[in-house]
């Protein structure tokens, strides 16, 4: 597993999952076929898909070796990967064709312009993004407190945050918590330690969020090995 701000890369065996949705753009690619399904019960066997943010899906049949990339919606490449809305399997497979038969490699996405150019963003949003990681372990992160920190009223900050980051404030905080908990758990912390370290109320809270985002229990992340670099398999 490779973790960077706005980016999570997983390689290895992929099992089946329950129906779930996450706030990231997900790329899934394998040398062998896997089966993906949407919330309408439609399934497809393929070797690559691109799933837009907040789109319910499930893995019906996994693969022995695959690569998954989760990109934050504000990532510079996200609009390229999802040029049109796609809430069903055929659209995900169509978007995935750029990886299954085209010249674009997974490593190119990871090493490319993942971090957006934030120079034109409102200073309050930039300050919020800089402050948020340090606030996670303290428990609930309230928009009102962040608004006080950045010297902007709550409603304008919420609007600016959603417009520039691509996610509502609470959804973005939830994704940061999940990413941090995965990092702690993969590094050897217990489930309870990872939950508290990321600011979840308890391990049951972490378990519920993990199931909703990944369709699987957080214990699966305990088998991962953290790495600093990524290359195409």
UniProtKB/TrEMBL annotation:
GO terms for molecular function: DNA-binding transcription factor activity; sequence-specific DNA binding. The keyword Signal does not apply. PROSITE patterns: HTH_ARAC_FAMILY_2. The keyword Transmembrane does not apply. Signal peptide: none annotated. Residues 126-224 form the HTH araC/xylS-type domain. Keywords: DNA-binding, Transcription, Transcription regulation. This is HTH araC/xylS-type domain-containing protein. It comes from Nocardia mangyaensis.
């Amino acid at each position: 597993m490779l973790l960077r701000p706005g980016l999570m890369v997983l390689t290895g065996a992929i099992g089946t999952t329950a129906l779930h949705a996450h706030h990231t753009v997900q790329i899934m690619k394998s040398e062998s076929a896997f089966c993906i399904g949407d919330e309408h019960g439609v399934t497809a066997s393929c070797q690559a898909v691109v799933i837009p943010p907040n789109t319910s899906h499930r893995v019906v049949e996994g693969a022995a070796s695959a690569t998954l990339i989760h990109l934050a919606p504000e990532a510079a490449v996200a609009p390229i990967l999802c040029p049109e809305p796609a809430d069903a399997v055929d659209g995900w497979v169509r978007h995935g064709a750029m990886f299954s038969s085209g010249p674009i490699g997974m490593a190119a996405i990871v090493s490319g312009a993942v971090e957006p150019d934030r120079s034109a963003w409102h200073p309050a949003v930039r300050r919020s993004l800089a402050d948020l990681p340090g606030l996670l372990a303290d428990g609930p992160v309230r928009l009102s407190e962040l608004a006080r920190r950045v010297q902007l009223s709550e409603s304008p900050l919420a609007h600016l945050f959603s417009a520039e980051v691509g996610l509502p404030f609470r959804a973005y905080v939830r994704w940061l918590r999940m990413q941090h908990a995965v990092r702690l758990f993969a590094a050897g912390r217990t489930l309870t330690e990872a939950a508290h370290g990321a600011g979840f109320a308890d391990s049951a809270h972490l378990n519920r969020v993990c199931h909703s985002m990944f369709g699987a229990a957080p214990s699966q992340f305990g088998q991962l090995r953290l790495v600093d670099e990524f290359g195409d398999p």
